[in-house]
From TrEMBL:
The chain crosses the membrane at residues 6-30, 62-85, 97-119, 139-161, 190-209, 221-252, 264-283. GO terms for molecular function: L-isoleucine transmembrane transporter activity; L-leucine transmembrane transporter activity; L-phenylalanine transmembrane transporter activity; L-valine transmembrane transporter activity. It holds the Pfam family BPD_transp_2. This is Branched-chain amino acid ABC transporter permease. It comes from Chamaesiphon polymorphus CCALA 037.
Length: 289
Protein backbone atom coordinates (compact mmCIF):
# COMPACT_ATOMS: atom_id res chain seq x y z
CA UNK A 1 0.00 0.00 0.00
CA UNK A 2 1.48 3.31 -1.09
CA UNK A 3 1.96 5.62 1.93
CA UNK A 4 1.58 8.60 -0.41
CA UNK A 5 -1.99 7.55 -1.20
CA UNK A 6 -2.78 7.24 2.52
CA UNK A 7 -1.52 10.80 3.07
CA UNK A 8 -3.70 12.01 0.20
CA UNK A 9 -6.63 10.08 1.67
CA UNK A 10 -6.20 11.75 5.06
CA UNK A 11 -6.31 15.17 3.38
CA UNK A 12 -9.44 14.20 1.43
CA UNK A 13 -10.98 12.73 4.57
CA UNK A 14 -10.39 16.05 6.37
CA UNK A 15 -12.43 17.86 3.72
CA UNK A 16 -15.21 15.26 3.68
CA UNK A 17 -15.31 15.27 7.49
CA UNK A 18 -16.33 18.92 7.81
CA UNK A 19 -19.08 18.56 5.22
CA UNK A 20 -20.26 15.27 6.73
CA UNK A 21 -20.47 16.78 10.23
CA UNK A 22 -22.66 19.60 8.92
CA UNK A 23 -24.81 17.08 7.05
CA UNK A 24 -25.27 14.81 10.06
CA UNK A 25 -26.07 17.76 12.35
CA UNK A 26 -28.88 18.93 10.06
CA UNK A 27 -30.29 15.43 9.97
CA UNK A 28 -29.86 14.71 13.67
CA UNK A 29 -31.54 17.95 14.77
CA UNK A 30 -33.78 18.92 11.84
CA UNK A 31 -34.43 15.43 10.39
CA UNK A 32 -33.45 16.87 7.00
CA UNK A 33 -31.42 14.93 4.43
CA UNK A 34 -30.06 17.98 2.66
CA UNK A 35 -28.87 17.16 -0.86
CA UNK A 36 -27.89 20.83 -1.28
CA UNK A 37 -25.18 20.43 1.33
CA UNK A 38 -22.48 19.75 -1.24
CA UNK A 39 -23.45 22.92 -3.08
CA UNK A 40 -23.06 24.90 0.14
CA UNK A 41 -19.43 23.76 -0.02
CA UNK A 42 -19.27 25.10 -3.58
CA UNK A 43 -20.75 28.43 -2.49
CA UNK A 44 -18.11 28.86 0.22
CA UNK A 45 -15.31 27.89 -2.17
CA UNK A 46 -16.42 30.31 -4.91
CA UNK A 47 -16.99 33.27 -2.60
CA UNK A 48 -13.45 32.79 -1.30
CA UNK A 49 -12.12 32.48 -4.87
CA UNK A 50 -13.92 35.63 -6.00
CA UNK A 51 -12.42 37.69 -3.18
CA UNK A 52 -9.02 36.04 -3.46
CA UNK A 53 -8.79 37.01 -7.15
CA UNK A 54 -10.10 40.55 -6.61
CA UNK A 55 -7.98 43.71 -6.47
CA UNK A 56 -9.41 44.72 -3.10
CA UNK A 57 -6.61 45.05 -0.51
CA UNK A 58 -6.86 42.72 2.50
CA UNK A 59 -9.87 40.87 1.07
CA UNK A 60 -7.69 39.23 -1.58
CA UNK A 61 -5.61 37.61 1.14
CA UNK A 62 -6.56 33.93 1.01
CA UNK A 63 -7.21 33.62 4.76
CA UNK A 64 -9.38 36.76 4.90
CA UNK A 65 -11.29 35.66 1.79
CA UNK A 66 -11.92 32.27 3.40
CA UNK A 67 -13.34 33.89 6.54
CA UNK A 68 -15.64 36.10 4.47
CA UNK A 69 -16.60 33.04 2.43
CA UNK A 70 -17.67 31.23 5.58
CA UNK A 71 -19.94 34.15 6.52
CA UNK A 72 -21.33 34.11 2.98
CA UNK A 73 -22.11 30.39 3.22
CA UNK A 74 -23.87 30.94 6.55
CA UNK A 75 -25.90 33.75 4.94
CA UNK A 76 -27.05 31.46 2.13
CA UNK A 77 -27.99 28.71 4.60
CA UNK A 78 -29.97 31.11 6.81
CA UNK A 79 -31.75 32.55 3.76
CA UNK A 80 -32.77 29.03 2.71
CA UNK A 81 -33.94 28.39 6.29
CA UNK A 82 -36.12 31.51 6.26
CA UNK A 83 -37.58 30.95 2.78
CA UNK A 84 -37.87 27.16 2.68
CA UNK A 85 -37.19 25.02 5.71
CA UNK A 86 -39.04 27.06 8.32
CA UNK A 87 -42.17 27.03 6.18
CA UNK A 88 -41.82 23.31 5.57
CA UNK A 89 -41.63 22.63 9.31
CA UNK A 90 -44.71 24.79 9.84
CA UNK A 91 -46.77 22.67 7.41
CA UNK A 92 -45.15 19.45 8.66
CA UNK A 93 -43.82 18.47 5.24
CA UNK A 94 -42.94 14.82 4.72
CA UNK A 95 -39.37 13.56 4.46
CA UNK A 96 -39.89 12.90 0.74
CA UNK A 97 -41.00 16.49 0.16
CA UNK A 98 -37.95 17.80 2.02
CA UNK A 99 -35.59 15.66 -0.06
CA UNK A 100 -37.16 16.88 -3.32
CA UNK A 101 -36.90 20.51 -2.19
CA UNK A 102 -33.25 20.04 -1.19
CA UNK A 103 -32.47 18.59 -4.65
CA UNK A 104 -34.18 21.61 -6.22
CA UNK A 105 -32.14 23.95 -4.00
CA UNK A 106 -28.95 22.13 -5.03
CA UNK A 107 -29.75 22.59 -8.71
CA UNK A 108 -30.62 26.26 -8.14
CA UNK A 109 -27.31 26.97 -6.38
CA UNK A 110 -25.26 24.99 -8.89
CA UNK A 111 -26.76 26.70 -11.91
CA UNK A 112 -26.52 30.09 -10.21
CA UNK A 113 -22.79 29.55 -9.77
CA UNK A 114 -22.53 28.46 -13.41
CA UNK A 115 -24.34 31.63 -14.49
CA UNK A 116 -22.13 34.02 -12.52
CA UNK A 117 -18.76 32.28 -12.63
CA UNK A 118 -18.90 30.11 -15.73
CA UNK A 119 -18.12 26.42 -16.02
CA UNK A 120 -14.32 26.58 -15.97
CA UNK A 121 -12.30 25.21 -13.09
CA UNK A 122 -10.83 27.91 -10.83
CA UNK A 123 -7.63 27.94 -8.83
CA UNK A 124 -6.88 30.00 -5.73
CA UNK A 125 -4.02 32.46 -5.89
CA UNK A 126 -1.78 30.81 -3.32
CA UNK A 127 1.86 31.37 -2.40
CA UNK A 128 4.05 28.61 -3.85
CA UNK A 129 5.23 26.21 -1.16
CA UNK A 130 7.57 23.25 -1.44
CA UNK A 131 6.43 19.79 -0.46
CA UNK A 132 7.70 18.53 2.89
CA UNK A 133 9.74 15.33 2.91
CA UNK A 134 8.74 13.17 5.87
CA UNK A 135 10.49 9.79 6.01
CA UNK A 136 10.62 9.67 2.24
CA UNK A 137 6.96 10.65 1.80
CA UNK A 138 6.33 13.88 -0.05
CA UNK A 139 3.57 15.80 1.73
CA UNK A 140 2.18 18.88 0.04
CA UNK A 141 2.23 21.91 2.31
CA UNK A 142 -1.45 22.67 1.76
CA UNK A 143 -2.40 19.07 2.59
CA UNK A 144 -0.92 19.76 6.03
CA UNK A 145 -2.83 23.05 6.19
CA UNK A 146 -6.06 21.22 5.35
CA UNK A 147 -5.44 18.65 8.08
CA UNK A 148 -4.58 21.36 10.61
CA UNK A 149 -7.73 23.36 9.80
CA UNK A 150 -9.85 20.22 10.14
CA UNK A 151 -8.34 19.37 13.54
CA UNK A 152 -8.96 22.90 14.83
CA UNK A 153 -12.54 22.94 13.49
CA UNK A 154 -13.35 19.51 14.94
CA UNK A 155 -11.85 20.43 18.31
CA UNK A 156 -13.92 23.62 18.33
CA UNK A 157 -17.06 21.65 17.50
CA UNK A 158 -16.35 19.16 20.28
CA UNK A 159 -15.91 21.97 22.81
CA UNK A 160 -19.13 23.64 21.62
CA UNK A 161 -21.22 20.46 21.80
CA UNK A 162 -19.90 19.34 25.18
CA UNK A 163 -19.31 22.56 27.13
CA UNK A 164 -21.66 25.29 25.94
CA UNK A 165 -25.33 25.93 26.59
CA UNK A 166 -26.24 25.88 22.91
CA UNK A 167 -24.29 22.65 22.41
CA UNK A 168 -26.17 20.92 25.20
CA UNK A 169 -29.46 22.26 23.81
CA UNK A 170 -28.57 20.88 20.36
CA UNK A 171 -27.90 17.44 21.84
CA UNK A 172 -31.20 17.57 23.74
CA UNK A 173 -33.16 18.49 20.60
CA UNK A 174 -31.43 15.71 18.65
CA UNK A 175 -32.40 13.18 21.35
CA UNK A 176 -36.06 14.22 21.70
CA UNK A 177 -37.40 17.46 20.23
CA UNK A 178 -40.75 17.30 22.06
CA UNK A 179 -39.12 16.71 25.44
CA UNK A 180 -36.69 19.55 24.69
CA UNK A 181 -39.65 21.92 24.10
CA UNK A 182 -41.30 20.83 27.35
CA UNK A 183 -38.13 21.56 29.31
CA UNK A 184 -38.08 25.13 27.98
CA UNK A 185 -35.46 24.89 25.23
CA UNK A 186 -35.99 27.39 22.43
CA UNK A 187 -36.04 24.97 19.51
CA UNK A 188 -36.09 27.69 16.83
CA UNK A 189 -32.93 29.20 18.29
CA UNK A 190 -31.31 25.77 18.25
CA UNK A 191 -32.31 25.40 14.58
CA UNK A 192 -30.64 28.70 13.69
CA UNK A 193 -27.45 27.74 15.51
CA UNK A 194 -27.49 24.37 13.78
CA UNK A 195 -27.51 26.07 10.39
CA UNK A 196 -24.79 28.51 11.44
CA UNK A 197 -22.49 25.75 12.69
CA UNK A 198 -23.22 23.34 9.83
CA UNK A 199 -22.80 26.01 7.15
CA UNK A 200 -19.59 27.31 8.72
CA UNK A 201 -18.02 23.85 8.72
CA UNK A 202 -19.32 23.12 5.22
CA UNK A 203 -18.10 26.42 3.77
CA UNK A 204 -14.68 25.84 5.32
CA UNK A 205 -14.63 22.32 3.88
CA UNK A 206 -15.27 23.67 0.39
CA UNK A 207 -12.49 26.21 0.78
CA UNK A 208 -10.11 23.53 2.03
CA UNK A 209 -10.86 21.62 -1.16
CA UNK A 210 -9.84 24.75 -3.06
CA UNK A 211 -6.48 24.76 -1.28
CA UNK A 212 -5.53 21.37 -2.74
CA UNK A 213 -7.51 21.19 -6.00
CA UNK A 214 -9.41 23.27 -8.54
CA UNK A 215 -12.89 24.48 -7.57
CA UNK A 216 -15.67 23.78 -10.05
CA UNK A 217 -19.39 24.56 -10.11
CA UNK A 218 -20.16 20.84 -9.95
CA UNK A 219 -17.73 20.01 -7.14
CA UNK A 220 -20.59 19.77 -4.64
CA UNK A 221 -22.19 17.02 -6.71
CA UNK A 222 -19.00 14.95 -6.51
CA UNK A 223 -18.58 15.60 -2.78
CA UNK A 224 -22.15 14.88 -1.65
CA UNK A 225 -21.88 11.11 -2.22
CA UNK A 226 -18.73 10.68 -0.05
CA UNK A 227 -20.39 12.87 2.60
CA UNK A 228 -23.54 10.73 2.69
CA UNK A 229 -21.35 7.61 2.73
CA UNK A 230 -19.36 8.97 5.69
CA UNK A 231 -22.56 9.87 7.58
CA UNK A 232 -24.04 6.41 6.94
CA UNK A 233 -20.83 4.60 7.82
CA UNK A 234 -20.36 6.54 11.06
CA UNK A 235 -24.00 6.40 12.18
CA UNK A 236 -26.61 8.86 10.95
CA UNK A 237 -26.92 11.81 13.32
CA UNK A 238 -23.63 11.11 15.12
CA UNK A 239 -21.08 13.88 14.40
CA UNK A 240 -18.14 11.91 15.80
CA UNK A 241 -19.12 8.90 13.73
CA UNK A 242 -19.33 11.11 10.64
CA UNK A 243 -15.74 12.26 11.23
CA UNK A 244 -14.48 8.69 11.57
CA UNK A 245 -16.49 7.63 8.52
CA UNK A 246 -15.10 10.53 6.49
CA UNK A 247 -11.49 9.51 7.08
CA UNK A 248 -12.30 5.88 6.21
CA UNK A 249 -14.01 6.99 2.99
CA UNK A 250 -11.22 9.43 2.08
CA UNK A 251 -8.44 6.89 2.57
CA UNK A 252 -10.41 4.11 0.82
CA UNK A 253 -11.03 6.32 -2.20
CA UNK A 254 -7.40 7.33 -2.62
CA UNK A 255 -5.97 3.85 -1.95
CA UNK A 256 -8.33 2.39 -4.58
CA UNK A 257 -6.99 4.64 -7.38
CA UNK A 258 -4.30 2.18 -8.61
CA UNK A 259 -6.96 -0.55 -8.79
CA UNK A 260 -9.99 1.21 -10.30
CA UNK A 261 -8.60 4.50 -11.60
CA UNK A 262 -9.33 8.00 -10.37
CA UNK A 263 -12.50 8.27 -12.47
CA UNK A 264 -14.14 5.44 -10.50
CA UNK A 265 -13.02 6.20 -6.98
CA UNK A 266 -16.42 7.74 -6.15
CA UNK A 267 -17.87 4.27 -6.64
CA UNK A 268 -15.86 3.14 -3.61
CA UNK A 269 -17.85 5.55 -1.42
CA UNK A 270 -21.10 4.19 -2.89
CA UNK A 271 -20.04 0.58 -2.33
CA UNK A 272 -19.07 1.23 1.30
CA UNK A 273 -22.40 3.01 1.90
CA UNK A 274 -24.40 0.14 0.40
CA UNK A 275 -22.46 -2.47 2.38
CA UNK A 276 -23.03 -0.49 5.59
CA UNK A 277 -26.77 -0.28 4.93
CA UNK A 278 -26.92 -4.01 4.18
CA UNK A 279 -24.88 -5.37 7.08
CA UNK A 280 -24.80 -2.64 9.75
CA UNK A 281 -27.52 -0.05 9.04
CA UNK A 282 -26.93 1.66 12.40
CA UNK A 283 -23.37 2.47 11.29
CA UNK A 284 -20.11 1.88 13.11
CA UNK A 285 -21.34 4.08 15.94
CA UNK A 286 -24.85 4.54 17.22
CA UNK A 287 -26.68 7.43 15.57
CA UNK A 288 -30.14 8.94 15.90
CA UNK A 289 -31.59 6.76 13.13
Amino acid sequence: MDPQLIVNGIALGSIIALGAVGLTLTYGILRLSNFAHGDYMTVGAFIAWMLNMSKIPVLNNIWVSMIVGIFGTVGVALLAEALLWKRMRRVRATATTLVIISIGLALFLRNGILLFFGGDAKRYNLPVSEAIDLFGIKIKFYNLVVLGLAVVAIAGLHFLLQNTKIGKAMRAVADDIDLARVTGINVEEVVLWTWIIAASLTGLGGQMYGLVANVRPDMGWFLIMPMFAAVTLGGIGNPYGAIAGAFIIGIAQEVSVPLVGSQYKLAIALILMVLTLLFRPQGLFKGTA
